[in-house]
Automatic annotation (TrEMBL):
Name of the protein in question: SAM-dependent methyltransferase TRM5/TYW2-type domain-containing protein
InterPro entries the UniProt entry points to: MeTrfase_TRM5/TYW2 (IPR030382), SAM-dependent_MTases_sf (IPR029063), TRM5-TYW2-like_MTfase (IPR056743), TRM5/TYW2-like_N (IPR056744), Trm5a/b_N (IPR040601)
GO biological process annotation, one example: tRNA N1-guanine methylation
Keyword Manganese: no
Matching SUPFAM superfamilies: S-adenosyl-L-methionine-dependent methyltransferases
Organism: Haloferax elongans ATCC BAA-1513
Length: 328
């Protein structure tokens, strides 16, 4: 059955859909369709559509159930959700645009669709993005009851690590001294503070620290977080022997900071050491680095060896939980 639709180029699709939604003109009984790079957006009243838009008759499919991108594409695309940003990792630009079109046409909530344009780079761990839909790379991500405002163009954040972060934070006790050495926008620090810990959160990325401070306010824990912009090796001078729990989530180079971690450690301290290693020995190199730095001043006890995720063929992102106990 033909119904009135606004026809727009795909690059204008999301903006147009929002305008029509704001005017209460969207026809929710029919699906948005993608044809030859154009979107056909069904409307309930063709006469009420602003004159700037082209209205055509189109045989739009009935909407019986929620429409997913796979329903439109005919295959299941791979993507991540971060707040209202959808993240693609496609080498083929045409395929990336096709998936972005399907996301806009589906019922998936998305203000922005981006495609990875570079690997993580530099000491600030950020990457380039191709923005396919929308005009902002800022979003608010919700995780285990906490909100994190961030801009993926200026800070590093991985939604894939939510379960792992929750595993660590569940161990935090009220009144504990927690030092997050590479804190980002606060996904470890803020829930730790919410559990009643006193938290020091450090990061070399000034933008991340600005978001962290905002997120501490947003989550009502600013009175228990000290956010510091700087190199943790320099910041550690003011916190020697303070930390009862250390988070070292810098998996490519955390081994370069184990001596700093030992300086920060209190008489008893749990360390969450993140690493990326070959499957043949995923935990050995990290444990060797910790022992080399901590012994004989501390006894080193392995509490848990946790494989977080597969990182690359034959490589794992892992977390080694150890307890350091100062020898008397």
């Amino acid at each position: 059955m033909n119904v009135p639709c606004v026809r727009v180029p795909r690059e204008s699709g999301e903006e147009t859909r929002k305008q029509l939604a704001d005017a209460d003109l969207l026809d929710h009984d029919h699906q948005i369709s993608v044809v030859d790079g154009d979107l056909y957006i069904p409307v309930v009243d063709a006469d009420a559509v602003p004159s700037e838009f082209e209205v055509v008759e189109y045989e739009a499919p009935d909407r019986d159930t929620q429409t997913n991108p796979a329903d439109i594409l005919g295959f299941e695309p791979s993507y991540e959700r971060l707040g209202d940003v959808v993240i693609l990792d496609e080498d083929d630009a045409e395929r990336a645009h096709e998936i972005a079109d399907a996301i806009v046409a589906s019922d998936l909530r998305a203000e922005t669709v981006v495609n990875r344009a570079s690997k993580i780079k530099g000491e600030l761990r950020v990457r380039d993005w191709d923005v396919l839909v929308g005009d902002s790379t800022e979003t608010v991500h919700r995780e285990y009851g906490h909100e994190f405002h961030l801009d993926i163009a200026t800070v590093y954040f991985s939604p894939r690590l939510a379960t792992e972060r929750h595993r660590v934070v569940e161990q935090v006790q009220e009144g504990e001294h927690v030092f997050d050495m590479f804190a980002g926008v606060g996904p470890f620090a803020i829930p730790a503070a919410a559990n009643g810990a006193e938290v020091v959160a450090c990061d070399l990325n000034e933008s991340a620290i600005e978001y962290l401070r905002e997120n501490a306010d947003r989550n009502d824990v600013s009175d228990r977080i000290t956010a510091i912009h700087g190199d943790v090796r320099e910041v550690a001078v003011d916190y020697e022997g303070w930390a009862e729990r250390l988070v070292m989530n810098l998996p490519h180079s955390a081994n370069e900071f184990v001596e700093t971690a030992v300086r920060l450690a209190a008489d008893e301290c749990v360390v969450h050491f993140y690493d990326i290693q070959h499957e043949d020995d995923p935990f050995g190199p990290g444990l060797d680095a910790i022992r080399d730095a901590a012994e004989p001043e501390f006894d080193v006890e392995v509490l848990e060896e946790n494989i977080v995720r597969s990182y690359a063929p034959h490589e794992y992102n892992v977390c080694l939980d150890v307890r350091l106990t100062r020898r008397q």
